[in-house]
Amino acid sequence: MLYPFTFHPILKERVWGGRNLERLYQKPLPPGTRIGETWEISDRAGDASVIANGPLAGRDLRWLMEHHRQALLGTASADERFPLLVKILDAQQTLSLQVHPSAAAAARRGGEPKTEMWYVTEAAPDAALYAGLKRGVTREQFAEHIAGGTVADCVHRLPVRAGDAMFLPGGRLHAIGAGCVLFEIQQNSDTTYRVFDWNRAGLDGKPRTLHVTESLATIAFDDFEPELIRSRFSHNPKFAVRFLVRDPLFRVDACRVKRGQRVYLRSDGVQVLGVTQGRLSLHYAEHDLALQAGQFALLPACLERVALTALTRVEYLHAQPG
Question: Which domains, from first to last, does the chain contain?
Answer without folding.
Answer: 10-218 (2.60.120.10), 239-321 (2.60.120.10)
